[in-house]
Amino acid sequence: MHAEISFIGLFWQASLLVKLVMMTLMGMSVVSWALIIQRSKAIKAANLASEQFEDRFWSGVDLNRLYQESSSRRDDIEGMEDIFYSGFKEYARLLKAGARGQDAVMDGTYRAMRVSLSRAVDELESNLPVLATIGSISPYIGLFGTVWGIMNAFIALGQVQQATLQMVAPGIAEALIATAMGLFAAIPAVIFYNRFTNKVERLENAYANFMDEFTTILNRQIAQQGEK
Fold first, then answer.
1. What is the pTM for the complete model shown?
2. Which residue has the higher pLDDT, 209 or 75?
3. Positive or negative torsion for Cα 66, 67, 68, 71
4. CB under 8 Å to 113, separation ≥6 — which residues?
5. In which element (H, E) is residue 153 found?
C-alpha cells in the first residue's frame, strides 16, 4: 500500500495527460530556480558595482581621470558607471563641437544618460517576466491536471458496482499531486519575482539620483567656465 501511494508510484499510475502536466510543472520549476539563481547573482553584482563606483565618484577624483579609467575598460562597465561614461562622453563631445548654450549641452548629456539608464534597467529586468509567467500559470496547469485526474477517477468508479475508498484514493491522490506541484513551482517564482522587482526599483532610483547629481555637477562646471 505504501508503494502504491508514493510519489513515484502515483506518477507511473497516472494517466498520460496528468503525467505530461507533472513533467511540465517540474520543468517550469527547474527553469524558475535557474532564473532565480541567475538573477540573484546579476542583481547582487549590480548593487556591488554601483556601491564601488559611487564611492570612487564621491572620493574627489578628477572627472576626466575617472572617465579615462572607465573608457579603458569600456566593455566591462555597467549600471551607474556606464551612465557616467555615456553622460561625460556626450558632455565632452558637445563642448568640443561648440554646442550653443548651456541648456543644449545639458539636454544632450541628460538624454545620453537616460538611454544608458534604460539599457541598464532592461538588463536587470531580463527574464523577470518569465518568473512572473511561471508564478501566474503554474497553479492553473496543476489544477487542470487535478481536475482531469479526479474526473478519470470518478469515471472509473462509475464502472464498478461496489465502490470503496481504496479504489478511488490512488486516483484522487495522483490528481492532487498535480496541484501540489503547481504550487511548488509558483510560490518561489512569485516570491522572488516580487523581491527582484523591488531590488530593481531601488537600483533604478539610485541610478536616477546619480544622474541628477551628476547633471548638477556638470551644470556647475559649465557655469564656472562661462564666468571665466
1. 0.83
2. 209
3. positive
4. 83, 84, 86, 87, 90, 211, 214, 215
5. helix 128-157
The reported pLDDT for the residue numbered 45 is 94
Cell of 124: 536587470
Q: What phi and psi, each to the nearest 5 degrees, are found at residue 97?
A: -80, -5
**Cell 564611492 sits at which residue?**
55
Question: Quick count: other Cβ atoms within 10 Å of Cβ 179?
Answer: 21
Per-residue pLDDT, 173? 73
Answer yes or no: are the C-beta atoms of 35 and 190 closer than 8 Å: no
CA-closest candidate to residue 128, choices 209, 50, 207, 199: 199
Residue 163's pLDDT is 58
Q: Which amino acid is at 187?
A: I
Cell 533604478 locates to: 204
Using an 8 Å Cβ cutoff, are 87 and 213 in contact? no
Residue bearing the bigger pLDDT, 96 or 131: 131
Q: Which of the residue ranges 41-50, 100-109, 119-128, 178-187 would you say has the lowest mean pLDDT?
A: 100-109
CA distance 64 to 57: 11
**Which residue's entry shows cell 478511488?**
168
Using alpha carbons, select from 168, 150, 149, 179 the residue that is nearest to residue 16. Answer: 149
Tell me, what's the pLDDT at 160?
62
Q: Which of 177, 181, 186 is nearest to 150 (CA)?
A: 177
96 contacts: CB under 8 Å, gap ≥ 6:
none
Q: Please state, in angstroms and rounded to a whole number, the distance separating the CA atoms of residues 161 and 123.
A: 62
Mean pLDDT throughout 40-62?
A: 93
